[in-house]
Amino acid sequence: MSPRQSESYPGAVILSAESLGPCERRVVRGVRCAKDLLFTMIQSPRPWLPQVSLLRPGIVITPLLITLTACRPHDFPQYAPNYREYAYVTNGGSGTVSVYDVVNVRVDREIPVGQNPTAIAANPVRNEVYVVNAGTPSGQGSVAVINAENNSVAATIPVHKLPLAIAPDPDGNLAYVVNSGSNSISVLDLKARREVAQIGVGEDPAAARVAPDGKTLVVANRGGNSVSIIDAATRKVRTVVIGCPGAADVVILPDSSKTFVACSGGHQVMAIQLAHDARPDGRPATTDRLESLLDVGRAPVQLALKPDGGEVFVSNSLSNSISEIYADRDDVAGAYLMGADPVRGLVSADNALLYVGNLHSAEVTVYSIEDGKRIAAIHVGDGPSALAFSTAGHLLFVVDARSGDVAVVRTLNCAVSGPVRLGCQMFTMLPAGRGPNAIAVKAFKVS
Questions:
Q1: What are the DSSP calls for 413-429, one per residue?
Q2: How many helices (H) and strands (E) does the chain have?
Q3: 153: number of CA atoms within 13 Å, CB side?
Q4: For the chain, what are the domain ranges?
């Protein structure tokens, strides 16, 4: 390497990508390599500066101790030649979606999709990704359909006023779009690529979730301070639960027996039993019923459910904390300080770690669920507001709304078996468009 001093970033050096060795070049660009570069920061007059920043024509790196170690192929999955995986990030200010190649950890392309894209979801069955375009306040929104096999827009489906969210059903046949300006839910036939029904709900709906059994849709009505519970078969509202100020987010347990709704206008989470027929395991039939209002921190804006359904973690944005709820008995176990303005949490597939994006701390906090404590803080870009794991779980993608980039974290280095590793930090940074705000990941094999 032939480093030179950076004029724009005092204390940093510029490394030209062309001057790097083959392995070093791959690591900086984010591709798997025969060697592993361990970057350890030893001094920096600007600690907020990213350790690796993809800039042209050079790469900015703060003063580092670079250690070459032996090959560690187990750090990255070994993919089949026909395996594809992409992360999709909506850029509200650019009207585009940034596409990232997860296998090679690099930017693939940027796709124009529509005006003000604000939400995104992947089809669980079909190789498609759906982008919600909110449009203008006085106009109609739309849903852009991206064909994941060639990463191009295959269709655009008109919906209604100010759509904010989308929830595909478990079979991948239908999707439910939350139209906040129309106080309704659009039901989309994903194969026919058209709206087949519109369901009226409460005022200013903000989020929706389909139960894992596909039988129930739960909608959080932010302006109506209520929750609408919809029968998916009849497409009719069967229950309305009131008393949830600023209803903002929804999770449903894996057995579809209960839902939790964050009441962001106050300091509570609503626990609601969902109607269900008698079950083969002997559990009796149930009806929709408010079970409890659970006191958490101020302004609970988002809920993160453990994959096993045992606990729900609440991001309390105005309390700078998370609250832990035992889902089976509606019990708040405690609250734990995170960073400034936690807005997004995500639990690892092994149920061991909770990652929390702190909007005003420019960091992701790592919380050990078993130990009940925070174990690391990963410096990322400015305004981390959306998170997603790679399918294998070895990478965490962090969408930084203010700095307009996506931080990539190697989760293996954050494992909690034994002491926390020094490497629990950002792996690389990838550019995004203006105002990135949401992310979805899609993996598949091509024939």
A1: GG--SSSPPTT-SEEEE
A2: 1, 38
A3: 18
A4: 4-74
